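Residues determine shape. We examine one folded chain.
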Amino acid sequence: MVRKNSKWPKEGELIVATVYKVLPYGCFAKLEEYVGKEAFIHISEVSSGWVKNIRDHVRENQKIVARCIRVNPKKGHIDASLKRIREDQRTKKIQQWKIEQKAEKFLELSAKSLGKDLNTAYKEVGYDLMDIFGDIYGAFETAVDEGATALTDEGISEEWAEAITEVAKRNITPPEVHISGYVDIQTFDYNGVDIVKEALLAAENNGDNDGEVIKVQCVGAPRYRITVTSTDYILAEKELQAAADRAIDIIEQSGGNGEFLRELD
């Protein structure tokens, strides 16, 4: 069960729950993110239209997304609504919940590498990660991008920071960006074909080997398209310009001319 860093949901919050009892006047559902908590959904909150038979709308073991409309910690009551939520909100909440489930699995793997269980992980580091990074998955993404020091700088112990970073690197692939531009190159040298080939090979050759992948394809001479794939947008922009410059330099050395045109995203 994915856990929140609080015991009770807030009024207006979207909650993920599993229906476990359906009655003629409403249903009860166990909350997936709040340990030991359940919500009641009155029949009047099941649908915006008239509900003749509640079982036409909800059933036992059904996973639902509802809006919390009343919370009474003293009485232990939570009232929720299925009708006070849009379809796009429901979809987004489910996606977030699935990401949180994945993050919890990563946290459990990190704990196992230290000989600890998930409950201990939440107590020692899980709730702190939520406070610092917004959610646990955000902490793992940060570990992939910036390394363990990004966690220790925020007060996370070194053993947990190293364990989390190791799991993150094995399981999270940084998102890729793809950017493109064009070079218009032409040379009037008698050996022009070979010079153009040399220029295009130079464009594709990333001597710094920063992890960017560069591809060049002919659009229609004298125009060639350069595409850079990277996990860092700023580095990709720099490498795109550098690739174009390498091609243009070779062309200009032969007495030809070249121009770089950035393709709009």
About this structure: The first strand starts at residue 14 and ends at 23.
